[in-house]
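Continuing the series of single-chain predictions for the mutant panel. This is the parent chain; the variants come on the following pages.
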Amino acid sequence: MTKTHDALFRTLADPTRRALFERLCREGEQTVGSLTARAGVSQPAVSEVIADLEHALVPAHEEVAAEEERARLGRLHLIRDAEQAAAPGKQEDARVATFQGPAGSRAGGIP
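Parent structure:
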């Protein structure tokens, strides 16, 4: 497990943070005032919880995005490699076809 995951789980271990996190997941974006009205804690406490959640969640989100990008690039390389393996010599044929010999003839003396 990474440090990012450790920070996320540590943050969600607190019952107040977890309850606010679950509420945000369930009900979507809300104002601090709206969260405070039903949280049973002060507005500064809710603001602190939001900051803690952002601090823990943003790196986790960025880490997931980076992993997805690496996977996407890996798939592109696999596709390219598979296409090249499926058509051996295709690139070489294209290079030979474009090479012009003397007097405008193609390589290998083909007119």
